[in-house]
Write a structure and sequence with these properties.
Blueprint lengths: L6 H12 L7 H6 L4 E8 L3 E2 L3 H11 L16 E2 L6 E7 H32 L3 E3 L9 H10 L13 E3 L1 H7 L2 H9 L8 E5 L2 H9 L4 E5 L3 H9 L6 E5 L17 E3 L2 H4 L6 E7 L3
Parallel strand pairs: 5-10, 6-7, 7-8, 8-9, 9-10
Antiparallel strand pairs: 1-4, 1-11, 2-3
């Protein structure tokens, strides 16, 4: 069964192909041979493979005859080594393969890069959940957040309306954390989560007294986090963020920390190496 790309994502594929602007040379596009070729996807790095649905659906967006790729889906989320020399082979009409190649590879490479990097954090995080942020590539949030989940992480907010998050700019404008919390409470959205970005223990106490339950401890040192844990109530959630990397994450894996969020999962993921080669079938 093929992956079902909802209509809203089909609009993204239309934008992706608009960047190539094939309208400049319709004769070229119309003259490409449609004979089938063997396509060989090569995994050339240590990686967590992610994004196969977007990879294959790129070609299906162009093709009249859809490619069935359910047999390849067990590879999604699987860890591969460069030394495995993995090749995934399938067939496509040459015109479809050539036209969709770069966009399909870009999506697969981006998703695999994010999933691989996320998984490196997850492997070190123990009981603490790893969360992404909204620091995503414009137009690719749906791919990158999908990749975070494939890599073993969790999604924070997809958009601003998923949770009210009180940050520095809110506190500055409304006159402090208490007034910022009151503003969002007065919106009377009963089930809407409220998360408050906290910068010191006094602000944490004030936010809790004002009714907040979920707190993002921003740029706290491990020692400061430990102090916050000492005053943590049963109904409080601690998310830690700011300056946390693969090199220092172990210092933040503390009993009482519920999650670590990192924008670097999506904006700083090292690129993995993939390629797609075509082989003409024998005449």
């Amino acid at each position: 069964m093929a992956f079902d790309i909802p209509k809203i994502y089909e609009k993204n594929f239309a934008l992706f192909f608009a960047e190539d602007d094939f309208s400049k040379n319709y004769a070229y596009l119309n003259s490409l041979p449609s004979k089938k070729v063997e396509c060989v996807l090569k995994l050339k790095d240590d990686l967590v493979l992610a994004g196969l649905p977007f990879f294959f659906e790129t070609f299906n967006y162009l093709a009249k005859e859809k490619i069935e790729y359910s047999d390849f889906m067990p590879n999604e989320g699987k860890t591969f080594k460069k030394s495995d020399f993995v090749e995934i082979k399938f067939e496509l009409p040459f015109n479809i393969a050539l036209t969709g190649e770069r966009i399909a590879l870009n999506l697969l490479q981006r998703a695999s890069s994010v999933a691989t990097y996320t998984n490196q954090f997850v492997q070190k995080s123990g009981h603490v959940k790893i969360l992404d942020t909204r620091k995503t590539t414009p137009g690719l949030r749906f791919v990158e957040k999908y990749a975070v989940k494939v890599g073993g992480g969790y999604n924070h907010r997809f958009g601003q309306m998923d949770a009210w998050m009180i940050k520095d700019n809110h506190k500055e404008f409304f006159g402090g954390v208490e007034m910022a919390i009151k503003y969002f409470q007065d919106l009377s959205t009963f089930y809407q989560p409220l998360v408050v970005e906290i910068h010191d223990l006094d602000e944490l106490a004030s936010a809790y007294q004002a009714g907040a339950k979920h707190f993002l401890l921003d740029n706290f040192t491990p020692a400061e986090i430990q102090h916050a844990i000492e005053i943590k109530k049963e109904d409080m959630t601690y998310e830690v963020s700011g300056g946390i990397s693969l090199k220092n994450i172990e210092g933040y894996i503390l009993n009482g920390v519920d999650a670590i969020s990192s924008g670097s999962l999506t904006y700083n993921a090292p690129q993995v190496d993939l390629s797609l080669k075509f082989k003409r079938r024998s005449l």
